[in-house]
């Protein structure tokens, strides 16, 4: 199977170690990040959803204009924009980018964050709405006549399918969420199911759980996993970098008065449960930042040389995970660094694993 490598582009400089202090939108920085990802050999770049940040589809349009082949993974919350308008908006972006858009469906995670955008549904209701929303999008995208829809959360008449997606049958759907409600929706809709960076045994169990759920609908999703790799020329240097990252994260959070509060979402709870097993799990899965921040987002790291990290990713690849979302704590610098060493190592190592899987391939 072919491996897919995804990065992440933000609209302005900054990360957990260096909180942004300038304008929320820096077009020059977006262009630099987009072109750095393309040069580094990433297949896609995630454009995140932030209720206190720039609107992702517009950032994505800028990224598409600044690049030639880089794919875009647009984080998108159901319920913020009505489904008929969303279908046209996303299809238009897919046309402008000539089929480089995929959708990362984010149903929620933090109630306070959701309420900033006027969303007051409870957890399970959000996933019921997401299921309905994706049904509506797909019906419009694949229709050859106006669409009527009458659901619990959405109702519309004669929605126009005139703006078609470049990709057929529709824009690919990436989906995350580890609760029972989330996995049922993922089983019905996800082309790629996304996990945060957990230990190998936890990932294997969740992959099998999603596969079993998807099988009921006759579907076979791909699987993606997200890490914050910390790489250096030697393993000792990489661990020294990790120590420095943790020091900076703690100092930044202290200066902002932030505390690691108990997370509401199941994904974060799973990361914190894994962190209870130790600061380092499975040889080089480092939980330091996850523990310090309450694991509110993708925050676990693989630490080592590029070859060592690629070998660790290979163990997830052997479990059926063939998409890796990798982003650094030094966003631009790590993007360049990954292109120089880690991405070539990942592609070499997974290609070798594929050759070993094929009996007597020669």
From TrEMBL:
<feature type="domain" description="Luciferase-like">
    <location>
        <begin position="18"/>
        <end position="323"/>
    </location>
</feature>
<dbReference type="InterPro" id="IPR036661">
    <property type="entry name" value="Luciferase-like_sf"/>
</dbReference>
<dbReference type="InterPro" id="IPR050172">
    <property type="entry name" value="SsuD_RutA_monooxygenase"/>
</dbReference>
<keyword id="KW-0288">FMN</keyword>
<keyword id="KW-0560">Oxidoreductase</keyword>
<dbReference type="InterPro" id="IPR011251">
    <property type="entry name" value="Luciferase-like_dom"/>
</dbReference>
<dbReference type="GO" id="GO:0008726">
    <property type="term" value="F:alkanesulfonate monooxygenase activity"/>
</dbReference>
<keyword id="KW-0503">Monooxygenase</keyword>
<dbReference type="GO" id="GO:0046306">
    <property type="term" value="P:alkanesulfonate catabolic process"/>
</dbReference>
<protein>
    <submittedName>
        <fullName>Alkanesulfonate monooxygenase</fullName>
    </submittedName>
</protein>
<dbReference type="Pfam" id="PF00296">
    <property type="entry name" value="Bac_luciferase"/>
</dbReference>
<keyword id="KW-0285">Flavoprotein</keyword>
């Amino acid at each position: 199977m072919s491996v897919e490598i995804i990065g992440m582009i933000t609209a302005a400089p900054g990360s957990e170690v260096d909180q942004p202090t300038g304008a929320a939108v820096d077009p020059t920085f977006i262009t630099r990040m987009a072109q750095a990802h393309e040069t580094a050999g990433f297949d896609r770049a995630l454009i995140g959803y932030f209720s206190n940040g720039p609107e992702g589809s517009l950032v994505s349009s800028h990224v598409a204009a600044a690049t030639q082949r880089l794919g875009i993974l647009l984080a998108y919350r159901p319920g913020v924009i009505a489904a008929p308008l969303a279908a046209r908006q996303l299809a238009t972006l897919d046309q402008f980018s000539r089929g480089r858009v995929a959708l990362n469906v984010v149903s929620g995670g933090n109630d306070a964050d959701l309420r900033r955008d006027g969303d007051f549904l409870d957890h399970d209701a959000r996933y019921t709405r997401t299921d309905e929303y994706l049904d509506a999008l797909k019906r419009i995208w694949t229709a050859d006549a106006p669409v009527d829809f009458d659901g619990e959360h959405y109702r519309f008449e004669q929605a126009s399918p005139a703006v078609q997606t470049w990709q057929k049958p529709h824009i690919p759907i990436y989906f995350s969420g580890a609760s029972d409600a989330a996995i049922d929706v993922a089983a019905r809709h996800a082309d790629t199911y996304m996990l945060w960076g957990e230990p190998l045994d936890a990932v294997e169990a969740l992959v099998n759980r999603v596969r079993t759920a998807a099988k009921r609908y006759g579907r076979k999703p791909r699987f993606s996993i997200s890490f914050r790799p910390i790489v250096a020329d030697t393993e000792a240097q990489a661990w020294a970098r990790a120590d420095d990252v943790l020091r900076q994260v703690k100092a930044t959070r202290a200066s902002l008065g932030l505390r690691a509060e108990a997370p509401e979402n199941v994904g974060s709870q799973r990361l914190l449960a894994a962190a209870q097993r130790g600061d380092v799990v499975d040889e080089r899965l480092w939980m330091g930042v996850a523990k310090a921040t309450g694991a509110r987002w993708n925050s676990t790291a693989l630490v080592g040389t590029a070859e060592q990290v690629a070998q660790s990713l290979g163990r997830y690849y052997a479990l059926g995970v063939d998409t890796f979302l990798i982003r650094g704590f030094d966003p631009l610098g790590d993007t360049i660094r990954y292109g120089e060493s880690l991405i070539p190592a990942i592609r070499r190592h997974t290609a070798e694993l594929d050759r070993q899987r094929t009996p007597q391939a020669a």
